[in-house]
TrEMBL record:
Key words of the record: Transferase
CDD domains to which the protein is assigned, alphabetical: ASKHA_NBD_TobZ_N
UniProt organism field: Thiorhodococcus drewsii AZ1
Classification via Pfam families: Carbam_trans_C (PF16861), Carbam_trans_N (PF02543)
Protein name: Carbamoyltransferase
Molecular functions (GO terms): transferase activity
Length: 614
């Protein structure tokens, strides 16, 4: 009899659900893709419903349900923190306690109620409910699906119950904790403090900070290391909490932080100045240094050649790339849903392997299936929708479709690409993507300002045929989840003139850096996604068709959404997003939709933003 385990993450941000059957990940999805509420923290009703449907199960058929956090331990941490900062922490204590006393402290009862309502059954008939620790779930999500039989596991995030950084040794079906750094000393919260200070939104704007860093100089690096972070040679650290407000207040930083960096935080949506670029460069440099030191320490202490990463800091692909190139490990594997959503998956796998003591199978292969674990919609579902809505389209077989798309991309057309199963995690990996020609010098600004409606400095990633990645980038091996940054190959770069080398700030964006300028960042780097025929054959086929036509084995790949919206989840979501932007074509499986043939619709101007950078 098969054992079915449902993992759940909820009530903080990026709620998600995952179904594991006999150790195999059958389905996983974030609630935001269904609710259309970005970073949705609510109980993941629709994500659970999808997982159960994918597994052909009712809720009562499950053997275990597991939550990714231990709320009583977290409550203990909150109480101790507020008491240690009393009376200055009173304001945040009064803001947080009603929610905790009403919901989170009674989480077991709340989960039972939500599950019983969802399943239409009595609480007594629910499957057993288990809880893992937060970093245990992160570590399990990193090690158990990885291709390594034995590996070090490094988890870095804001905070779980107490841990902010934890080290584990994974061996077979066991994970043994080694040591941890505890709250309030947190690399994730330090990075988020600078996200807040530079005017971006915490828990979503960290990507922007990382993308902004190459436009600045790390002139504040020493200031950070001298005042904010006492960093040891082994990578462990302590923060000077006199500059931070997150432990006892309602903001990330305080006036002492303002004085240290010469002024108050940037107001959201105001112009980004050179100060923000230099701050981004500085905290990125410090983060990379911490990660490199921690990596070397873990390698020395555990004596293993493989490393797995999870937690929100593991989404810092620049730091990951440096650790791979400069660190001591032969291979690094990063969980694609490294943030809290991945906790649902890790919790479920932790129950299977550790609680039930079941062996790992296929430990020499990546068991995330390319992260294509969400819903799929076939042509038989899509065509009735298009016909019923009166949407003009043409249906093409795969060969004709790929040839047509290759020609359109070669003509600098921007295409919404919706096919196969939806990705699990924050990256679009060729299931729900917007694609374009990486050779186009204007593609980055066109896609940022006219389609994504976001800041012009935001970089795009190349989706490159795995078998040709080393021809274009200084990278060997796989990077299927867009979580490694690598330099563009010297042979593909364009040398800068002396005048161009003297440019600074956002003016750097105006200078093409390589033969593939749309995906080459100003520091000659790119955020790689290697595309594999085994995990996404149709996306691989499309890129191969483009390569045959142009000699370029890659496409620009960015997530199918606009600023402030989750990645599209359904054909209806995709068409709405397509019509609200200046994309030229939309592909829904084998159905090709041209913008020029669509009935006129009023443009929703609220989606558009103008960004002036000085």
């Amino acid at each position: 009899m098969a054992v079915n385990i449902l993992g759940i993450s909820a009530y903080y941000h990026d709620s998600a659900a995952c179904l594991v059957r006999d150790g195999e990940v059958l389905a996983a999805a974030q609630q935001e893709r269904f609710s259309r509420k970005k970073h949705d923290a609510d109980f993941p009703v629709e994500a659970i419903g999808y997982c159960l449907e994918e597994g052909g199960l009712a809720l009562a058929d499950l053997d275990h349900v597991v939550f990714y956090d231990k709320p009583l331990i977290k409550f203990e941490r909150l109480l101790e923190t507020y008491l240690s900062y009393a009376p200055s922490g009173l304001r945040s204590f009064l803001a947080a306690m009603p929610i905790w006393l009403k919901e989170k402290l009674l989480l077991k009862s709340l989960l039972h109620k939500e599950l019983a309502t969802l399943g239409g059954i009595e609480t007594a008939d629910l499957p057993p409910l288990l809880f893992t620790q937060h970093h245990q779930a992160h570590a399990a999500s990193a090690f158990f699906p990885s291709p390594f039989e034995r590996a070090a596991v490094l988890c870095m995030d804001g905070v779980g119950e107490w841990a902010t950084t934890s080290v584990w040794l994974g061996d077979g079906n066991r994970m043994t904790p080694q040591w941890e750094i505890q709250f309030p000393h947190s690399l994730g919260l330090l990075y988020s403090a600078f996200t807040y200070f530079t005017g971006f939104k915490v828990n979503s704007g960290e990507y922007k900070l990382m993308g902004l860093a190459p436009y600045g100089e790390p002139k504040y690096r020493d200031l950070i290391l001298d005042h904010l972070l006492a960093l040891k040679d082994d990578g462990t650290f302590r923060m000077d909490m006199r500059y931070f407000n997150y432990a006892n207040g309602l903001t990330m930083t305080n006036r002492a932080f303002d004085r240290l960096f010469g002024g108050p935080p940037r107001r959201p949506e105001s112009p980004v100045t050179q100060r923000e670029m230099d701050l981004a460069s500085s905290i990125q440099s410090v983060t990379e240094e911490v990660v490199l030191r921690l990596g070397r320490t873990v390698h020395r202490e555990l004596g293993v050649d493989h490393l797995c990463l999870a937690g929100g800091v593991a989404l810092n692909c620049v730091a990951n790339g440096r650790l791979l190139r400069e660190g001591p490990f032969k291979e690094i594997w990063v969980q694609p849903a490294a943030g809290d959503a991945g906790g649902a998956l890790g919790a479920a796998l932790s129950v299977w392997h550790q609680y039930l003591d079941q062996p790992r199978s296929g430990a020499d292969s990546d068991r995330m299936q390319g992260a294509y674990l969400g819903p799929a919609f076939d042509n038989d579902r899509i065509e009735p929708y298009l016909k019923g809505a009166g949407i003009p389209y043409v249906r093409l077989d795969d060969d004709a479709l790929m040839a047509r798309l290759a020609a359109l991309l070669d003509d600098e057309q921007v295409i919404g690409w919706f096919q196969g199963r939806m990705e699990f995690g924050p990256r679009a990996l060729g299931g729900r993507s917007i694609i374009g020609d990486p050779r186009s010098a204007r593609m980055q600004s066109v896609m940022n300002l006219k389609i994504k409606y976001r800041e012009s400095f935001r970089p795009f990633a190349p989706a490159v045929l795995a078998e040709q990645v080393s021809d274009w980038f200084e990278h060997e091996g796989q990077s299927p989840y867009m979580l490694m940054v690598a330099p563009v190959a010297e042979s593909k770069r364009i040398a800068m003139t002396e005048d161009q080398q003297r440019l600074f700030g956002i003016d750097k964006l105006k200078v093409p850096r390589s033969q593939i300028p749309a995906i080459t960042h100003v520091d000659y780097s790119a955020r790689l996604q290697t595309v594999h025929a085994e995990t996404n054959p149709r996306f691989h086929q499309l890129i191969a068709a483009f390569a045959e036509r142009t000699g370029c084995p890659m496409l620009v790949n960015t997530s199918f959404n606009v600023r402030g919206e989750p990645i599209v989840g359904s054909p209806e979501d995709a068409y709405r997003c397509f019509m609200r932007t200046e994309m030229d074509y939309l592909v829904l499986e084998n159905c090709l939709i041209a913008k020029s043939e669509q009935p006129a619709q009023p443009r929703d101007q609220s989606w558009q933003h103008t960004f002036e950078l000085d």
